[in-house]
Structure of Endoglucanase:
Amino acid sequence: MQSKKRLCQLVLAGIAMLGTCGMASLTEAADAGMHVDQVGYLTGYEKVAMVTDSGDTDFSVVDAKTGKVVYTGKLSAAKADPMSEETLRRADFTGLKTPGTYKLKVGNRESYDFAIGDNVYAVPAVQTWRSYTLTRSGTPIDDAGITGLKVKNGHAQDKEAKVYFTDKLNKKGDKVDVTGGWYDAGDYGKYTTTAGIAAAELLLAYEAHPDHFTKGQLLFPKGIKYDKNLPDALNEVKYEFDFMKKMMRKDGSTFHKVSGAQWPGFDKSPDTDTQERFLYSTCSASTAMYGASLAIGGRVYKDFDPAYAKSLLKDADKVWGYLAKTKESVYRVDEGQESGSGPYNDTNDIQERLWMAAEMFRTTGDKKYEEYLKANKAEFTKAPGFFTWDNTLALAQFAYAMSKNADAGLQTEVKKVYLDYADMIAGKIAKDGFGCALSKEEYTWASTKNAMTQGDMLLMAYQLEPKQAYVEGALSQIHYMFGRNSLDKSFLTGAGSNPPEHPHNRIHESTGAYIPGLLVGGPNAVSGGDPDQTKYLESGHIPTAKSYLDVLSSWSTNEYAIDYTGTAAYALAWFAKPEALTASQIKLTRDFPVVAK
């Protein structure tokens, strides 16, 4: 059993590695080992907390303001959890359905506050979707009254980004306008790979529950231009599409990324990082992902703007034409292209081609796309893993399973392999001490995204076969994200009592504006992620589920990315009903000081 003192030592050991970056502050739980969802629990669903075993067998839930006991119960039998190396008991208070704010008590221990209500995820849902707005490049942002973020015009020099290489379409030094879009992560690179999958995640979230999205929902800050005829969420994705279109080349391929040649310092804001920007690489996998997102956009925007939807599908046809002519995977490598940006080096594009084909078939019904899927049936009907930027097979299978007029035999086969995987995820959740979908080998870089992706896949499975276990399993991943884990740490910035204090984020460090709604990577038990994480893992025995550092310099555990956040956006949008929230409701009530200054 990890004592409160020992937990503090583990985290502070990592904080000490910051060196000249400064000291991070540590927010402790009222008592260690009281693991709750710090945001809250939905009224009509399972409500469970985990308690590190202390020999007590009773628990109570008390009103957070008055201390009055409102619910009592018996803890489950103690059971060892291998990932955290804790012995846990479960406190099940599903029977408590009265909205309010509460604490869990066991003996003389008490938890962080948590809410119970019909719409407890409304605020973090808006903050998560709104985080994309606040990471826009190429537009003025003045978020007065909420985050305080003020950016004049991030990377205006992207209007004349220089091509880094020479091929049959471009010469080195050609200037291309690639303004706009979202910054990928804690750096200022913009990548077609994550742009494509993140845009798709958001559109699929909209498609699952269009009634959960409204105009005015995201409280766009001053300086943001948008189409008043669209729900805010679709305005946001459109901004990314406008950028990706600029990354498309004459033959339907795409540039892989745009960034500077060096990593900018943490003192550089989007509008003071004035280094020259370059267009690097071409990659057929990222091109196919762009094409898949276009296909989804073609059906989502159709009811709002038929002409725009048609233009998206026209571009998708161009992408498919390129892929049809380009039989082998392409990932161009030029010396120096990774000196100031990440690689996203996918050298096997078959899953991404399948995804695009399946989305195009779902949107258009054109049998040529189904014929492609049939021609690659051996790959298409493999057991999926959770989808990610370098393997989108599961998204391909979901798209085809949802398609009308599909070949009945193939569709049945595809549904089976997808639902078999969903059942496997549900089984992992049932066995894990914290109800987390992660197996040991999945506590890697972006483990929180890995867990949330599996939760999203359960929600997609529910659309194919409505099992309550799928919905509850997805909620378990939200509970994990919001602090029902062995670290009592919320992995979404600004959410809960103990969110990331020092995310690896240049916008925060350079401007002082802490952006809520960003999903950080979380525990990474594979040594070599970054120097601080590696040293931490080598400092002694660190349980797999605790291999996380809330420090600025741990990019392998404490950085966000747009595709990470997309997994949270999907899940939260599923459960959050739209409310007319005000600026004061989504504004944070505490400050998160920078480290680098």
Q: What stands out?
A: Residues 384 and 394 are 5 Å apart (CA to CA). Residues 1-29 have pLDDT under 50 and may be disordered. The domain at 119-480 is CATH 1.50.10.10 (Glycosyltransferase).
